[in-house]
């Protein structure tokens, strides 16, 4: 289960992606690190860390 901070960030980033007409293909929790991974559009990968901070890869 994602943390509350991860869920808030996930909602905001998903909103931004769909606002830019990017399809969100995958939202998954990495079993090893417990980070949330989002795959959106052609080449967009975003990692959301446990504390809610995120990084565009």
Describe this structure in words.
Residues 1-55 form the DUF6888 domain. The chain crosses the membrane at residues 6-27. This is DUF6888 domain-containing protein. Keywords: Membrane, Transmembrane, Transmembrane helix. Strands 1-2-3-4 form a four-stranded antiparallel sheet, covered by helices on one side. By secondary structure, the protein is of the alpha+beta class. The protein has one domain (4-56). A hairpin with a 3-residue loop joins strand 2 and strand 3 (44-48). It is 28% helix and 33% strand.
Please give the share of residues in helix.
Answer: 25-40%
Structural class, by secondary structure, is: alpha+beta
> Please, how many domains?
1
Summarize model confidence as the mean pLDDT: 95
**Low-confidence parts lasting 5 or more residues at pLDDT below 50?**
none
Tally of helical runs: 1
> How many DSSP E strands?
4
> How would you describe the shape?
globular
Gap between N and C termini: 22 Å
Radius of gyration: 10 Å
Strand content: 25-35%
Outline:
The protein contains one helix and four strands; from the N terminus they run H-E-E-E-E. By secondary structure, it is α+β, with helices and mostly antiparallel strands.
List the helices and strands and how they pair.
Layout: H1 4-19, E1 24-29, E2 36-40, E3 44-48, E4 54-56
Antiparallel strand pairs: 1-2, 2-3, 3-4
